[in-house]
Amino acid sequence: MTDSVRAMCFLPGHKMTLAYDNKVKTFDGRGLSNILPFIEKKKDITGYSVGDAVVGKAAALLFVKANIYSVYAKVISRPAIQVFRKYGIPTRYTILVDNIKDESGTGICPLEVALADCLDYEEGYKIIKETLAKLRAEAEKKNETVAEDKK
Question: Which of helix, strand or coil describes residue 50?
């Protein structure tokens, strides 16, 4: 069994898998929280195959930055496919969607929107970090407003 197939087979019940040299690691965080620490801490996962429940453009750019060998996605967006094609990363998927939805399910994921014109993984990483910081600040402000309203 190849690492690509192993990453796919071990995905059910998890959010992300990494497979390399007949070993599999599983992760259960949400969103980009599974892949970001590898990049931020400069942990080398070059050549690993990844299985992921949902892959949008942000995840695709991060996988490219991390030198992932191949990707299996349960759900993948067309913009993510575009990234993988540009960088020659073998990709398998079950469901192809136009865009990843936001948390409410009513709009497009803010990262997909922020990265709409980006295909460069280094530029994409900067945009992802900026957008995540902005989203965190907005969430904190919203939580402060809710807390003040309850007083």
Answer: strand
Query: Number of helices (H) and strands (E), helices first, in the chain?
Result: 6, 5
What distance in Å separates the CA atoms of residue 61 and residue 35, rounded to the nearest whole number?
Answer: 11
Paired residues of 92 in beta bridges: 72
Q: What are phi and psi of 130, to 5 degrees?
A: -65, -45
pTM (global) more than 0.90: yes
Q: How far apart are CA 148 and CA 151, in angstroms?
A: 5
How far apart are alpha carbons 131 and 116 in whole angstroms? 13
Query: How many other C-beta atoms can be found within 10 angstroms of the C-beta atom of residue 78?
Result: 13
Confidence of residue 31 (pLDDT cuts 50, 70, 90): confident
Rama region for 52: left / alpha / beta (φ>0; ψ in -120 to 50; rest): beta
Cβ density class 5-42: b for 16+ within 10 Å, e for less: ebbbebbeebbbbbbbeeebebbeeebbebbbebbeee
Q: In this predicted model, what pLDDT tens digit does every residue of 87-121 receive, in sequence order?
A: 999 999 999 999 999 888 899 999 999 999 999 99
